[in-house]
Amino acid sequence: MDIDNLMKIELSDCIIIVNTENGDVIEVDKRLFNDKKALNKELIKNNFYEKLLYSMKFSKDSFKTVYISLHISSKCNMNCKYCFMNDRKYNNLSFEDSKKFIDMIIDEYPNAGKYIVDPTGSGEPLLELDNLCKIGEYCKQKSDDLKREVLPMIVTNGLLLTEKVVKRLRESGVLFGVSLDGDKKTNDIYRYDYLGNGTYKRVISNVKKIKDRSLMGVALTITDKNMDLVKNLKHLIKYFPTVSMKPVRVIDSNIGINESNIDKLKNSYTELYEFLLKQTTKGNLEYLSAILNGDDYFGKFLLRSILCIKVTTRCDAGVGRFSLAPDGLIYACPGAIDISELVIGSLEKGIEKEKRDFLWNTLVNRNKCQDCYAKFVCGGECFVNAYYSTKSITEKDDVMCELKRHLFKLSLAFNHYLKQMECYSVVIRGCVEKTKRFDEEKEVTNFLKRNPNVSFNDIKYHKAYIDRK
Length: 469
Ligand SMILES: C[S@@+](CC[C@H](N)C(=O)[O-])C[C@H]1O[C@@H](n2cnc3c(N)ncnc32)[C@H](O)[C@@H]1O
Ligand code: SF4
Ligand code: SF4
What we know:
Blueprint: E1 7-10, E2 15-18, E3 25-28, H1 30-34, H2 36-45, E4 65-70, H3 95-108, E5 114-118, H4 129-146, E6 149-156, H5 163-171, E7 175-179, H6 184-190, H7 200-208, E8 217-222, H8 229-236, E9 242-247, H9 262-281, H10 286-293, H11 297-306, E10 321-324, E11 329-331, E12 343-346, E13 350-351, H12 353-365, H13 375-378, H14 383-390, H15 398-418, H16 424-436, H17 442-450, H18 456-461, H19 464-468
Parallel strand pairs: 4-5, 4-10, 5-6, 6-7, 7-8, 8-9
Antiparallel strand pairs: 1-2, 2-3, 10-11, 11-12, 12-13
Bound molecules: S-adenosylmethionine and iron/sulfur cluster (2 copies).
S-adenosylmethionine (SAM) binds near residues 83, 120, 122, 219 and 249.
């Protein structure tokens, strides 16, 4: 590899170099950078040219967390303009089928450390509250049987989130987050009910009544109408400890991210980066933590850059993540519903191995990403997004690639400045905790093996057992 061909990012006090072939990142001072011989020596000393070895073979046991999604409600009490579920068939999954699917996937992946069960699906899960709570109770039972966590979690539009409903969800162990697209003005542009009325006021009034919001996050879908990310974050953090902002995936390019608005969104992310940097420098970690702790689009890049995590696939769709639709078909992920290329089996026949192998090979080979310097942090294109923008799940969306490369550069720069801050070690610890959140808690499993009379749920709700050990 030639030094001249390495990817460089110039900051005020250093140059960051990225090796496209192995994902290595190194920061060098400008003087060293201009002395090619010395630079090369430094790079060799840091093993910068070493080949990255990783397995391309599919192995079920490599998935520490397995995701099981259930479309328990095809119905919705809202009519958001961008919703990917535009053809509602009004058939729901029964509790029996949900149970069967949970068992099927757990049997298929018996060695995972944790199972996340997500009954959100493609409609409003709170319209099926009884079923949802029964699934929550079943997850508790499975956790006790397996001595590992089977964790139910949903995102709701929040319209039905009354105090009574919150109590029931909590009693049955279902974690929940809420979708809101910013403040009243921006949220109500696309998130409205069937009468065309905005929903912000009703949702936020329910949210405000929930006293303990410590485990509650908010999901914001970025469209052409709410690209002021700092404003979104400042507003939503008033009500939620974690904020996840993700670009919409739509066929209607006017609503989504396209050539006409990509620069605006990139600039907005640069502003978000500057804002986070300023707040973190001042020692205010609230905003950074809100972004890092959830499932934020930029947060993912930040976390990977801060912890030097290299990924070989974008996600686990269809290989460690499965979604059951009401008609009994299994899709690679919840957003894939109605995309026939992403059907990978059925409740009746199980997962089709050839289809899973095809998705695995597509994920891991990333044929369209070979020359991209961001590939070890981005991981590759989302199947659903690729399908919506190119009609092929194996392609990539060039507009989104431009955004992702921008986010990669911002995350590298952020990491560089973060290292110089007093709070660096605190942030590192927080990031490590976050990555471990979905891992098996080995100490709990081992404790339960030694104490068969104690159940997983006893431990979960009364951690004191462990502390007394
Ligand atoms: C399909 S909804 C189902 C749960 C519930 N009805 C809600 O809105 O939270 C789950 C999440 O998907 C998001 N979503 C819907 N359509 C989308 C699309 N086309 N692209 C990206 N996200 C989308 C919603 O904003 C919401 O946060
Ligand atoms: S509330 Fe959720 S499911 Fe309903 S239309 Fe909006 S995004 Fe879709
Ligand atoms: S999807 Fe795009 S940004 Fe991501 S690795 Fe592939 S080419 Fe790079």
